[in-house]
Design goal:
Blueprint (H helix, E strand, L loop, with lengths): L4 E6 L2 H12 L4 E4 L2 E5 L4 E6 L20 E5 L3 H8 L4 E8 L4 E7 L5 E7 L2 H7 L3
Parallel strand pairs: 1-4, 5-8
Antiparallel strand pairs: 2-3, 3-4, 6-7, 7-8
């Protein structure tokens, strides 16, 4: 089995795609007017419009309802990311060291999903992720 992607269902797909393009610095590939993917070296973030939910099962997913997952992106410099994003996202917390050795910045996307940008800083954390 290969983990392929995380998909967000968006009420406003254009705004969400533009937001994640800004966060990741990657250009989305629009596979259909209601579906786009942002491919990073480690994972793919898929974003589908609310109308795509009917392809699975009516009301099986709901835009803006996520309160259980955190999307995490490893970055080279959390403080630089904070400087770039602090006025463009709803901040949860400024960069700080977490107990497991990552320096992390957390915010919410335009529809409320929790997003974390982090960099390993302790020896143990750096060992888990390899060299940056």
């Amino acid at each position: 089995m290969k983990f392929a992607s995380v998909r967000l269902i968006a009420a406003d797909i254009t705004t969400m795609v533009a937001f994640y393009e800004m966060v990741t610095g990657q250009t989305a590939e629009w596979l259909a007017p209601q579906f786009a993917e942002i491919v990073t070296p480690a994972a793919t973030l898929a974003i589908g419009s609310a109308e795509t939910v009917a392809a699975f099962a009516e009301r099986s997913a709901e835009p803006g309802a996520n309160r259980t997952a955190i999307l995490e992106f490893m970055v080279d410099d959390v403080d630089a990311a904070f400087a770039r994003l602090k006025d463009k996202a709803v901040l949860v917390h400024e960069p700080k060291l977490l107990p497991w050795g990552n320096r992390s910045l957390q915010f919410r996307d335009p529809e409320g999903t929790f997003v974390s940008l982090f960099m390993p800083v302790t020896e143990a954390a750096t060992a888990r992720f390899g060299s940056r």
